[in-house]
């Protein structure tokens, strides 16, 4: 009994130290990925820190420090003779697409800015964005200006999480109506969903709605050029009072990973303005990952932690939704849920809505 309690306490103490030293472990992993140290151990296990240092032409000191931290953090195992091999956690860091999208998003987009978490939380402004440019008010109009590594990590993260759900969402849409005519892709970003929709419904056309920085770039994108004749762009900044105009007659409005870019009150007015733009009988489809409705703890943790990106880097006031809060917003905005489709892709729920 006493022994069990002592072990339970030591496990708890270890879990707490993982948190206390989380940035140290994180940056050691980052260095091990960037130097190729982790990959070298994975490909040629059984070497010593020194032998990898020699092969990679990095200082033996660097390899020794990384080996100590990674072995203690269960990313590597080390034999009594000092030979190294990787654990399944290292395999995730090297080969699992989700882990890598999340890791590089954390490292290249957020890490420096996260230092301003307290200010951002208390002042409801993305205080960490100053790490890129002190003049920027939100991240969205500046996505094309991010430094190359940050831009790659931002799109890698965004695309990984939404692309997985697109095909499944298109299946649901096709089962509800095999012949959608006109899509309104709100917050369409680089046009990936618009393109997938136009492929799936060959008779359809699309309105692509976003900030000018995205609408002006869209039709020149190489992958979008073949679809240009079927797409019209509409520029809007939803943070002004603008109404959504020019989409009369459309039968499907679509918002994917979009409402989470806004505070609840902003999201509500966006939904209301969208409802006003919808003709009777039109559908609104909303695709969002819901923090509290995940099947796996790994997904819940990823989403909950990612919310801090919205706080510190993106806008200072939004987060990934919990299910009840989003359903309440729909209702308050005068929309009725027709059906819900959870667990699309890895972690998304698709809501099909109509005017109440
Ligand atoms: C996270 S991205 C979503 C991209 C895409 N829909 C997806 O599924 O991955 C959010 C999009 O909302 C747009 N956005 C953010 N703030 C906006 C605003 N105030 N007005 C209009 N669009 C905005 C951004 O430009 C971006 O394209």
TrEMBL record:
Transmembrane segments: none
Stretches assigned to coiled coil: none
Start and end residues of each O-methyltransferase C-terminal domain: 180-334
Pfam families: Methyltransf_2
Entry annotated with the keyword Ribonucleoprotein: no
Tagged with keyword Transferase: yes
InterPro entries: COMT-like, COMT_C, SAM-dependent_MTases_sf, WH-like_DNA-bd_sf, WH_DNA-bd_sf
UniProtKB keywords: Methyltransferase, S-adenosyl-L-methionine, Transferase
Listed name of the protein: O-methyltransferase C-terminal domain-containing protein
Organism: Sutterella massiliensis
